[in-house]
Structure formats: C-alpha cells, structure tokens
Amino acid sequence: MKILLATPLYPPEIAPVAQYVKELARRLKDIHEITILAYAYIPEQIPGVHIVTIQKDAFLPLRIIKYLTSLFSLEADIIYALNGASIELPVGIFTYFRHTNLIYCIGDQNALNHGKKSVLFRTIQRLLQKKAYAVIETIPSDRPEILPLEPRPDGALATWEQEWKKHIEELNSIFTHVKH
Amino acid sequence: MSNTNTIDTQGTWESFCASELLTIQPLLLELGFTLEKNQPHTQGERFLMHAVTSESGKKLILIGRRISDNLRVIIKITRDPHGIRELVHERTCRTVLTQIRFAYDVFFAPTEILFTEKDGYTISIHEFISQEKTFLERPLKEQFSLAIKAFKSQEGAHATTHAHIRLVQKSFTSAHADFYLNTFRNFCSSIQKAHPENIRLSMLLTHATEILENNREIIEQYSGFLTHIDFVPHNFRIVGDTIYLLDHSSLRFGNKYEGWARFLNFMVLYNKPLEEALMAYVKENRTPEESLSLYLMRLYRLGEIIWYYTRTLTSSEGNLRELNQKRIIFWTEVLTATSKHESVSEDIISSYKTSRDALRGADEKKRQIGLH
After folding, report:
1. Is residue B239 left, alpha or beta, with left meaning phi > 0 and alpha meaning psi from -120 to 50?
2. Which residues span the domain enclosing B52?
3. pLDDT of residue B88
4. For chain A, N or C: smaller number of CB within 10 Å?
5. How far is B109 from chain A (nearest CA, A)?
6. Nearest CA in chain A to B152
7. For residue B243, which phi and psi values (nearest 5 degrees)?
8. How far is CA B145 from CA A142, B102, B140, B151, B260, in A?
C-alpha cells in the first residue's frame, strides 16, 4: 500500500513530532511503500523511504502552494497527515478537490492549541476530522534517553517498544480496513 | 578570521591597561562606580585572547562596585571601534534571545546595570554573578546534566522558516557549510605558511580538509541552529539550576555541534570523563549523521585552536612562546587522534599539563584560579 506521511516537521528538526514521523516511516517501510512529504531543507534519510521536501525559507503562502502542488503530484492510497496549520491547510484543500483516504493524526498538542486560536484553522481542523477515515489522537511517547552515567533504562525502552508495536498494529488494522 | 586588531605584546598590553585605567577610573567614578584593586581579567595571558572567527576588539573587563550600595559588578569598557561593535552586538544578542521561542528559562543573563557612552567610551556594566563552586568543581553527573541542558536549549532554536531567518539575521551572525569550509581552509593555509617545516601538521590539516569537504552536506544539514561557539566554563556561571551566560557575543546560528565541539575539545584537557560521557550520549541517543556532524565540528574547532596558538607566537616571547609551541604540539596530537576517531592518550595529556604548569607565568596562574 502506498502511504504518504504529510508532516510539518521532520529531522533534523528536534520536535517530538519530527522524531515520531521518522520512527513511523522506519517501522512501516518494510510492509508499505512510504513517502514523506515534509517542510525541510536537508532531511535525515531512511533507506527505502522516499522523502520529498518543501523548502521552509520561502514566504508562507508560497510554501503552502508548493506543498499543495506536491500533494497533487504524489500518488498515495492513504494520506497520513500530522496536525499543524501548514499541513492542515493544503491537505484540507486537497481533500476538497480529490477523494482520498485520509488519516488525521493529532500528535502535536502545541500545534493543536495554536490552531484553536484562529477561527479559520479551527474550522479546517473540524473539517479534516470529519473527512478523515480515522483520527489518531495518541502517539507513542519519546524514546527514553540512555544516559551514560546512569543505569541503562531497559524497562523504559521495553515499554517504549511495546507502545510502538501496539501503535503499528493499530495503524495496520486501519490501513487494512481503508483498503477494503 | 575577522579580527587583526590585536595588541602585539605583553608590554604593549600592560602599558595600554595602565593608561586606560588612569582615564577610566574618574569616568567610572562620575557614573557611580569604583574599581577593585585586583583585576584578574587584565593579567596573565589575557592580552593574547582575541576571538578568531567573531568580532573581538580591544576592551577591558574589570571588576568594580556600585558606590551607592557596594554591589559587585563587571564592567566592560572600550573605545576601540571593534570593541564597541562587540559590546553593542552582545547587547543586541541578549535582547533578541528573549524574543526567540526557545528555552530562555534555562539561560539567564546577568542583570544589566548600565549601558552608556561617555567621552568616547562604550561602557557595559552588569551585576557580578557569584557561584558557590565552579563548573569543574561540581560532581561529574551534575556537570553532565548541566551541559546537556545547555546544549538542548540552544538546539531548541532552529532558524529555518522565513520569519525565523528574518528575526535572527538582524542580530546574530550565521554560519553554513561554505563558511566552515572556507574558514578551515584559511586556518590551514595560515598555519602552513607559519610552519612550512611542519610536514606532519600540514598533511594532517590537508587530510582534515578533505574529510570536511567530503561531508559538506552533513555540515549544512545541521546548520541553522543556535549555538554558543565559546561555550566553556569560564563563559558561564551556575547558581542553583540556572546557567548565567556571561558572553552573549559568541552566540550565532550555525552547525548545532559547533558549540558541543568547542566544549568537548576543552574537556579533553580539563575533564576527560565528561568528554567521554557526552560522546557516548550522542552515540546512544542521536543519529549516526549527528555523530558525524559532531566529529566534523571537532576537527574544525581543532584547526581553529591550532591557528589560534600559531597566531600568538609572533606576540609572545620566552616561556610563554615556548608554552604556545607546546600548545600547538598538544592540539596537533588531539587532532591526530580525533581524526582517527580515537582518544588522545593520558600520557600526552599529563605530559602537556606538566609543561604548561612549569611554563605558565605567576599572573596567569593567579588568573586561572576559580576560572573553570
């Protein structure tokens, strides 16, 4: 299945959502054909994953138009869109013109709260929630850090691994239902 | 290598300090400040210290008191155009730092008491921050946790969008891969010109240049982050959990590991277990590209430090000149080991420290007390 991960942030950005998208792509790439569409300059590569970038240093309207153009040009069975105004707006427009299997992931609480301050973005958020086949509201926590002067956090790492296993199972189940 | 505005010798520096202090003291008195008798920042090797890749002018850093309440203060004063630009730039950085959406609750700046111009001098006065213990006197775990906190805070500011770039362009300098490569090539050619006989160093620098050139994209990939290029213990103070930055003029948007690299290279000499712990942290928690970026920045900063001491040879004599030659040899050893992803041996470090302690002047030894 061709899955497009639409994200506002991607490493080397250090925001948790950027790390989440990279980890998600890494874990899905052996089962699905993954493309990441991200606002980034020089993204960190993942072997076997196609990454399309939109430069961030242009004016905001130009960035959004470029992002939208890329959405139209990339083929995908599913768009997995991370929340954030710079994604919600082009994805919102895209889904208005073209039927698509949309999964909307509200992984970035800060972006959600920021969007709620604007009537326009609140409306787009509601629209996307309605249009989406599924809304993902929880994502795995950040990977526990291994601190050289502390005991290795094996328990926390195992829990993190379990969270991801469960998350991938949940997503694969949704993907299967979308397909049928 | 922006600045060539150095005071050539210790003698010139001492005369400069003496004549400036005669003019400055009455001027400060008019502003309500007096100077303390002991002025460590005018002594020892202070005269050699000029930044290599950022603005650095002739300025005096003095310790004083506010007459009205006896508050201890740090006074930075200059009438040199480079020095004035440095002080104004530092103030701008301090102000803009609070406007950037980044963890400014981690870094604090000492309270500004006065910033003024008087009789051709630019004067910047801040509250003196006293600390119970220096950074290196703290337990290793605490040093590690403070360092990580400081680096994470810097990395939190990434100038990538149009709006970010506009905000920081006005105030901070920025460095990208081409800057690092060109500057490193300049270090190399200047060092090779000064030491044509040192074939080993020349070959090492050529090899390091090739490594940097072959990884240009990795350097660029991690650029655009806020980084303090002189983040070493004498440039910050710790009170409780708070880190007070004493030098804001060394903040810029560059490779996120430029500040790390300076800190780690410094710790090779001053606290090797901390250097090893931080290297292990990056290896365990960050991507291989990031480890590579740190490695590249360490090479870059080692080239810089070798050039820094090469440059001092013409303005030093006697024991100090011999010491600076030893420093070049020592940092060459560190560059050799680092370029091979190895650690410099303990023998080399302790042998260098022994020579350094024997060759350092009494004033410099005094200046070093409680510095790190």
Report:
1. beta
2. 10-127
3. 93
4. C
5. 25
6. A14
7. -105, 120
8. 19, 19, 9, 10, 14
Q: What gap in Å lies between CA B234 and CA B364, rounded to an integer?
A: 14
B141 part of a folded domain? yes
Q: Is the ipTM of this complex over 0.90?
A: yes
Could you say which of B127, B144, B172 is where a domain stops?
B127
As beta bridge partners, residue A105 has A82, A136
| Chain B residue closest in CA terms to A8 | B161
CATH number of A2-179: 3.40.50.2000
Q: Which residue has the higher pLDDT, A85 or A151?
A: A151
Per-chain mean pLDDT for chain A: 93
Domain boundary among B76, B94, B127: B127
The answer to whether B131 and B246 have CB atoms below 8 angstroms apart is no
At residue B151 the predicted structure's pLDDT band, cuts being 50, 70 and 90, is very high
pLDDT band of residue B101 (cuts 50, 70, 90) is low
B92 with B165, same domain: the answer is: no
Asked whether residue B119 falls in the same domain as residue B221, the answer is no
Distance (Å) of CA B6 to CA B144, B308, B333:
35, 12, 28
Report the C-alpha gap between B325 and B197 in whole angstroms: 14
Per the domain annotation, does B91 fall within a domain?
Answer: yes
What pTM does this model have? Answer: 0.91
Rg (CA), chain A: 16
Q: For the residues A17-45, what does the mean pLDDT come to?
A: 96
For chain B, the residues whose C-beta falls within 8 A of a C-beta of chain A are 140-141, 144, 155-156, 158, 160-163, 165, 217, 220-222, 224, 256, 276-277, 280-281, 284-285, 287, 289-290
Task: Render pLDDT for B281-295 as a digit per residue (tens, 0 to 9).
Answer: 999 999 999 999 999
Q: Which of A44, A145, A146 sits opposite B289 (nearest CB)?
A: A44
Alpha-carbon span A120 to B335, nearest angstrom = 56
pLDDT digits 0-9 by tens, B330-372: 999 999 999 999 999 999 999 999 999 999 888 888 888 877 8
